[in-house]
Amino acid sequence: MTAQLIRAVRTGLAELAQPAKAPEMQRYMKSTMPFRGVAKPARQALASRVFAEYPLSDVGMWQRAVRELWHEAEFREERYLAIALTGHRAYSGWQVPERLPLYEELIVDGAWWDFVDELAIHRVGPILRAFPTELRPAMRAWARSPDRWKRRSAVICQIGAKGATDRELLAECVEANTGDADFFLRKAIGWALRQYARTDPEWVAGFVAAHPELSPLSRREALKHLGARRGAA
């Protein structure tokens, strides 16, 4: 079934290809891997159809399909479909701490924001919330990793958690990276704090005030909407 699913994904992408759009998509993403020119809505429809037609019966088969789609990809959309397969609702029961090595592999190998952000926020984050005891030590380690994409993942993985956000962990992951000059880390810090400010603006304002070492970019992003909210209050 794995081979049939992968073949159906590749065939479907080829049928949906719009070669005229592919170069612009590749330029926008600054990708060395070419695109087919398949837009997100068409990819989502293809994923929904193919994943339903070719169900995978066990976690080993599922992981093999993900890895084959990913590592043997000739076009970037194949990797988008691999990520979509990891999040398909039929396999939600497999979203457990044991999946972290798979997501770590894709994050490190993907090494760009379009892959990393989806995996960090929508795969790693839910596992963290469901299994905090198991995942907290890993996120603390990721926040100090030599790999900037693992550090970014640790910072942003709680985006969307709202009231379920582990503030202590968020603070620790941010603090581990305040001295990093990397744009993607500074942007991630601001983004994570800005999103949590929608839930607890006072905590974010206090955190920013207590950390003068935050970069101007991180600070500006974190406080982006707080002035307007306070004015409205």
From TrEMBL:
Gene3D superfamilies: 1.25.10.90. CDD domains: AlkD_like_1 (cd07064). Pfam families: DNA_alkylation. It comes from the Bacteria. PANTHER family: ARMADILLO-TYPE FOLD, DNA ALKYLATION REPAIR PROTEIN. This is DNA alkylation repair protein. It comes from Prauserella oleivorans. The lineage of its organism: Bacteria, Bacillati, Actinomycetota, Actinomycetes, Pseudonocardiales.
